[in-house]
Amino acid sequence: MLSRRQFYLVYCVVILLFCSVLYLLANNLTSTTRSAAASRNHECPTLPPATEPPRRFEPTFLLIIIMSHGNDSSTRAVIRNSWLKLSSKGPSYVRHVFSIGTKGLSAPEMRRLYEEQEQFDDLLFLKNHVDTYENLAKKTALSLKTTVQEVEFEYVLKVDSDSFVRLGSFLKALKDVSHPSLYWGFLDGRAKPFRKGKWKEKDWMLCDRYLPYQSFLAILGLNWGAV
């Protein structure tokens, strides 16, 4: 039978062993947790906050979108040398872009456009758009969407390449009318459907005239810019 001294000695040894086992288990658990956390951090790094992509142009008061097409460089040259020069305001006040659908264009056509872009930096390429008469409405919407991403503006003016804008007078009138929700243009509701010829529409049965549609120029204020 153990003496009291031997009993206390055995008791202390058992307690010491028990504490050692607990320490080893705790240390192992801590190491495992740290490894798992490090693994998670490695697999899922903290991403920087999202930022908006840089815009192509500096902000401007009036952005002019001119509908054009790839093989219309001569008309663009006339516009640059005519009514676009009727205002002495710089690009911080008025800026223009020629909207061009480039899908389906040949390599030589694209090369000429790139050369023109390098010289003037005023072409807006719609890479997934085919320029056809049937796609005009889609082109207008796509042009607005693209320009909103590339330049900050207060007003946007959309015109066709056969338009002539009295730019100086127009800017003065725009300043006088100035309103963030301005929609300025000519809505025509008098036209009768074509029943003969190239543009005939035999399926138009809604009424004896077309619904009101935008004719000539159209200008939108800032509050319309997210179209």
TrEMBL record:
Query: What keywords is this UniProt entry annotated with?
Result: Glycosyltransferase, Golgi apparatus, Membrane, Signal-anchor, Transferase, Transmembrane, Transmembrane helix
Q: Which family does it belong to?
A: Belongs to the glycosyltransferase 31 family.
| Enzyme Commission number, as recorded | 2.4.1.-
Subcellular locations according to the entry = Golgi apparatus membrane
Q: Which domain of life is it from?
A: Eukaryota
Record organism: Steinernema carpocapsae (Entomopathogenic nematode)
Keyword Transmembrane helix attached: yes
**Protein name per the record:** Hexosyltransferase
Question: Which Pfam families does its entry note?
Answer: Galactosyl_T
Query: What is the membrane topology noted in the UniProt record heading this document?
Result: Single-pass type II membrane protein
Q: Name one GO biological process term.
A: protein O-linked glycosylation
Q: What is its main location?
A: Golgi
Q: Has UniProt tagged this entry with the keyword Transferase?
A: yes
For this chain, one GO molecular function annotation is: galactosylxylosylprotein 3-beta-galactosyltransferase activity
What stretches pass through the bilayer?
A: 7-26
GO CC term, one of those recorded: Golgi membrane
